[in-house]
Amino acid sequence: MDRRDFLKIAGVSAAAGFAPGCNRSEKAGKGDMTYRINPGNGDKISILGYGCMRWPVTKDENGKEIVDQEGANRLVDYALEHGVNYFDAAPMYHNGDCERVTGIALSRHPRESYYIATKLSNFRDCSKEASMKMYHDSFKDLQTDYIDYYLLHSLGRIEDFNRRYLDNGMIDFLLEERKAGRIRNLGFSFHGSKEGFDQLIALHDKYHWDFVQIQLNYVDWTHASSRNTDAKYLQSELDSRGIPSIIMEPLLGGRLARLPKHLADRLKEREPQKSIASWAFRFAGTPEGVICVLSGMTYMEHLQDNLSTFSPLRPMSESEIAFMDETAELMEKYPVIGCTACQYCMPCPYGIDIPGIFTHYNKCVNEGFIAGSPESENYRKARRAYLVSYGRAIEEFSQADRCIGCNRCMSKCPQGLNIPSEIRRIDKYIEDLRRNKF
Fold first, then answer.
1. CA distances in angstroms from 224 to 116, 158, 320, listed in the order given
2. What is the DSSP string of 120-161?
3. Alpha carbons 391 and 69: distance in angstroms, whole number
4. I need a surface site. Which of 12, 21, 132, 210 has the fewest CB within 10 A?
5. pTM
6. What is the b/e burial string over 185-209, where b = at least 16 CB atoms within 10 angstroms of the residue's CB?
7. What distance, in Å, lies between the first and last C-alpha atoms of the chain?
8. pLDDT tens track for 93-140
């Protein structure tokens, strides 16, 4: 990373370590939450946004996993009380239950006290009939008569836009809905190549995108995966057009909150009282063009820790940005799988817990429990730790050996992972451990 380029995009003063454009940020509410002003309409948005794809879950009387509505209500109440006012949902999250749960939780509060974001997630059926039904169902489930921030969900190529929104007439319909005020802001979320982004952002002249949601964190700033585009480029292109950005994956699916021990120790040496995650959130919130950083907060302790980071946000100094650059480069030496646990690949038709298997593997990599050859010093300890924890983390009928390589998951992955190949690699590794073979 060229930290001078980051400072230019972020608007950080090298001398003071703060954004000179802080008149665009405001502090208010319980706990001094930092707010960013949407330059397009003056919306005062909490820099910390609530990603609603990871509500807490519980079991019903039949043992089926469902969203814990009471738990979601408590989290929403606490978030609103402490200044969070942006809530990001989607029809596909929580197996189609996200908007309903979010709507119940939010509707207990005055509508003017929060902003709702949701998406047209017409991946499986992009016919106009199905897309229109999804659109209208969002209003019903969210218990609202207008959507503050509406997204064309997970675009990566101009072909995706044409197939899902142009050819079926949906983009014309959504533009009319924006004109009528039922959509207050229209944008899209992006995962894909530079070419795809350039083509989609060029449509700004025709459609006037009110905002764009991008993946931005200190790894993806200049080290994005092969399918995705460096966040530095995305943010600079948006800034040049005056389009505000919403940030997703500031923790890369939790990976930046679970660093290898010696990397975590580096961060703790500088700020012992701060969480590992707080560094990633501060990085994501530093660019001035960012109006909100999303976090999927399942537990109250996640919410409380993030509130302490953003109440108020302390933008990164030049030395801290350089430090995060070093951390990103060191992370590249660890052979983790680039899964963000977004769940877009789920459900697997064969019941495989794809995100769970990858999360467990990455955790073992970070903790040093990937066994080398039987002659290595920690082989027996690593072998036992991996096999025991794998059995506990992943239910038997959801493990990697169930994969038949149908490849249905591959086209759904925003990170462009070859999921079947990685699943087979992990399955072989586990089988070799069980046989004590390398």
1. 29, 20, 20
2. E--SS--SHHHHHHHHHHHHHHHT-S-EEEEEEEEE-SHHHH
3. 29
4. 21
5. 0.83
6. bbbbbbbbbeebbebbbeebeebeb
7. 38
8. 999 999 999 999 999 999 999 999 999 999 999 999 999 999 999 999
